[in-house]
Amino acid sequence: MLALLPQAIIDGVLLGGIYLTVAMGFSLAFGVLHIIDFAVGEWIMLGAFIGLIFTKWLGVDALLSLPVVFVIFAVVGWLLQPLLHRVLSGSRGRPVLMGLVFTFGLALAFRGSALTVFGIFTHSLDTVLSQGSWHLDWGPFFLTVPLIRLAGLVYALAVILGFNYLLKRTDFGLAVRAVAQNKEAAGLMGVDVNRTSAAVYGLYVGISAMTGVFIGAIVSLNAGMGPDLSIFAFFVVVLAGMGYLAGVPWAAFLLGLIQSFFLIYFNPSHVLLALFSILYLILLISPTGMFRKGV
Amino acid sequence: MQRRGWWVAVVLALALGLSLAVGPVLAADEFKIGVITSLSGDLATGGNVTKRGYDLWGKAVNAQGGIQIKGKKYPVRLIYGDDQSQPAQAASAAERLAVQEKVDVVLGPYASGMTLAAAPVLEKYKIPMITGSAESPLIWRQKFRYTFGTIPPVNFTGSAVIKTLAALPGGPKSAVIYGTNDAFSKATAEAFQTTAEQVGIKVLKFNILPPKQDLTPLMSAAKVLNPDLIAFGGHDEELINLVKVLTQLDFTPKALLMHYGVTEPAFIQALGKNANQVLGASVWTGSMQTKGALGWPTAKAYADAAVAEYPKDPADYTQAACSAAGLVFQAALVQLAAAPPLDEAARTKLVEILEKIDLQTFYGRVKFATEGDYYHSNAGLTPLTVQILDGKERVVAPAESAQTKLSYPMTPWNKR
């Protein structure tokens, strides 16, 4: 089974790529807006369905729907953010808890509506990359890399690099970081806090929806797919350290690799037990995440 | 203070209105049929298939004025309890239907885990339940006196497919078998494993997995073992994911066997040409030659009626078995000849009638076993091996019901 080692690593990294796509928007929303958005799985689900409709309607490759899905959902997020802001601010106490309740409600509403509108069935998004794979052989070792999963990983890395550039090298990024640190002070320095927050939320929703298209193509999509994704996003982000965006890729890859190695080399029945035991241990030793940089 | 008084008045008025609205229903002459099934949650797809089956029966009965008891017709009213795909919710739905709704009988959940949770509650209230879907042998081993089922247990149906494959010239010699960790899927995988070993197919790997696992690492490992057969016990979403993973890894076994889910239209719609040649087990198709003594006269008549009601989704065996469960209650209630609401003595008598019933329906024969490991499950049917061919579900075994020949080995994914 040693021959499977490269395959176990690549399977883990590619699986980590899926977790990464799910978790990065979630981390951004928490880091900047201080929202624990439990509707992230539902944004992903809705994105996947809009991708499906677009793909079926025009009969084109699912990946071509990505820009359309992004624009639609970025606008939706932009329009929704003021509502969220109202819930989080004002005279009510415990804004984090209020945000949690609000997004939980959003998730329920989205899931229920999707069940009604899109129905109960599981669907699959078709792309030209769905079926292909690369095979590599070196003596006893070999490797199969499914193209669509590789595309998912590339997408995830591109978004992370894009975020990094945006946050560190642009004026908008400076404003975002200022808002994340202290809203009042940022406002006094001339940053339009409301607009910046709405833009970040729009960006987050748009990216999550695009992730849906990838998930629909790599695995499948249905109206009930959200909660599991939200929970995984939450775990990745907690492991990385709440709000520490740079830790997210490492946490996602670690989860993917643990899962892949356990499924291949140990008893697959206990994979979730192993995963969460390790997660628990890490948080026991370092409650602020792997890098001790979370909040 | 004045404002609060106003609110109290509004609430009281609403409560009064509500009790008046509910009042006449309590007195109405009808059979109250409780239905517990998964209308939301992970298993909502299958749950809604059962709902269609139950609704179709309810509609057909009421179209004829209801069930005839001593010269008077009593319509049926289906009262739903959503188990949200969670056993605990199934138990509380059963409790609600028994205590608040005071149902006469219950049509049971889609999934086995939920059935196992609801059955003890109904046992406590002595309310008979027929499930038109649950297939785990665990249910019948509990020997619940008030629980019956129209689909034979999966170790009975699943084993038939393995035997069909083993009998093929040049059939599979080795297998990798996985199942998801829920009552039905686990039992399916175990049935595949036991039978494979019995018929001399070598099981290279067998594991029960937590639900919704990413299957890529497992199938990468399976690819190395290169088994002739991959068999998987699971539900629709997992089965779709499995085929997608196999296509992504470009690994085509000689035979790919699943059980339930293959017969769901969503499976074919989601996978297109890659659904072809996948094998499954079933107990009913619309093409079967059956004669119904009650309700729909033939399998085709039922299939047509189902498509007329739900044009997008042709009926599968679960939907048919659910409608048949309704028919069985109907026949038993006619024999019981007691007007609703049924008291405890009448419900116990109904169980005795159900134990003796031997009914020919469009779905085939329903005759419940009264002893042994299959206690109260349907022992009247022959299991079928089905295969998806040209995007359609076809019976390929046994020979007397086969519509066409089994296609083996599978065409590689990249040559389709």
Mind explaining what this structure looks like?
The complex is a heterodimer of chains A (295) and B (416). By secondary structure, chain A is mainly α. Chain A is 71% helix and 4% strand. Chain A has one domain (2-126, 146-285): Orthogonal Bundle (ABC transporter involved in vitamin B12 uptake, BtuC). A two-stranded antiparallel sheet of chain A has the order 1-2. In chain A, strand 1 and strand 2 form a beta hairpin. In chain A, helix 2 (40-58) packs antiparallel against helix 3, helix 2 crosses helix 8 and helix 9 (226-240) packs across helix 10. In chain B, helix 9 (236-248) packs parallel to helix 10 (265-271) and helix 12 crosses helix 13 (344-356). Mean pLDDT of chain B is 90; it is low at 18-27.
Short description:
The complex is a heterodimer of chains A (295) and B (416). Chain A is mainly alpha-helical and 295 residues long. In chain A, 71% of the residues lie in helices and 4% in strands.
